[in-house]
Amino acid sequence: MISHALILTAGFGMRLRPLTDERAKPAMPVAGDPLIRRIVAGLTTHGVTELVMNLHHRPETLTAVVGDASDLGARLRYSWEQPKLLGSAGGPRKALPLLDAETFFLVNGDTLTDVSLAALEAAHVGSNARVTLALVPNRDFERYGGVEVDGRRRVNGFTRKGPASRNTWHFVGVQVVSASVFDSLPEGEPLDTIGGVYDALIRDRPGSVHAFCTDARFWDIGTASDYLRTAQAFSAFSRGGSDVGHRAKIDPSARVTGSILWDDVEVGANASLDACIAADGVRVPAGAAYRHSILIQHEDELAVTPFDP
């Protein structure tokens, strides 16, 4: 049974700026709990308790919400990537000494899924592959790149989003990997898996990257609208409510619907927020009205960034 995992949490989350200027994406709350705590709790439920997280962008926002993860039943250590971000392959290479495991789960820190880890592990063991990717049908190929899979469940390549990804599979951010995939890579060099190391594996050792094809659900947090939809899936949005953080103060006359409020947010009298995301410490003035907007507080100035629903 695999008990080790590396959670990739070092990235910048560029598509979610300016929110990710305030917190690393995995530290952002989803229905009251930071995303990273949801991921860790999901792993420990399946007996995966020896964890490593890689850190680069806004690391203090991650360590503040998860600590050593002992309250979630895990032992968590950190792999610090400084001064440069090392990528989805370079990051695991650096973390190998902390992981100290021949086989481990490699989990994206910005996606939620209910994929069965036990079934994924069983598929990996039965395949004799070095990598096994959890995949679902790529129904939104205009938005997501695809994974090409043959009849023997071997991954044969990766495609860009658009028509080339029609009838392909979509990677949901969870995989089982052998440490041998990374241990020969140069340490400290930025390298990627898809579009790099895995493509070379497929070319040089066909069958070494395997597909676990499933109908599991997944929730993306790539953009502001993705973030709202994911929060809706885990909270009371469908009943007209909102996701409200700690120490929020909402005037009784204010109207807040379908929005995400981080910690220490204040909403003034007769203000209105509809499908908005308010970061830590935002102060919404009395009578103000915002819709489909990201709100960031810069001292006495409120910065407002509209986004597409």
Structure description:
44% of the residues are buried. This protein has 309 residues and is of the alpha/beta class. The longest helix is centred in the N-terminal third of the chain and has 13 residues. Strand 23 and strand 24 form a beta hairpin. The mean pLDDT is 94. The chain contains 7 helices and 24 strands. The protein has 2 domains: 217 residues, Spore Coat Polysaccharide Biosynthesis Protein SpsA, Chain A (Alpha-Beta Complex); 72 residues. The protein has a 7-stranded mixed beta sheet. A 5-stranded mixed beta sheet has the order 14-17-20-23-24. Strands 15-18-21 form a 3-stranded parallel beta sheet, with no helix packed on it.
Write the layout of secondary structure elements.
Layout: E1 4-8, H1 19-22, E2 29-30, E3 33-34, H2 35-45, E4 50-55, H3 59-66, E5 75-80, H4 87-99, E6 103-108, E7 111-113, H5 117-127, E8 131-137, E9 146-149, E10 155-159, E11 169-178, H6 193-204, E12 209-213, E13 218-220, H7 224-234, E14 243-244, E15 249-250, E16 255-257, E17 260-261, E18 266-267, E19 272-274, E20 277-278, E21 283-284, E22 289-291, E23 293-298, E24 301-306
Parallel strand pairs: 1-4, 1-6, 4-5, 8-12, 14-17, 15-18, 16-19, 17-20, 18-21, 19-22, 20-23
Antiparallel strand pairs: 2-3, 6-11, 7-13, 8-11, 9-10, 23-24
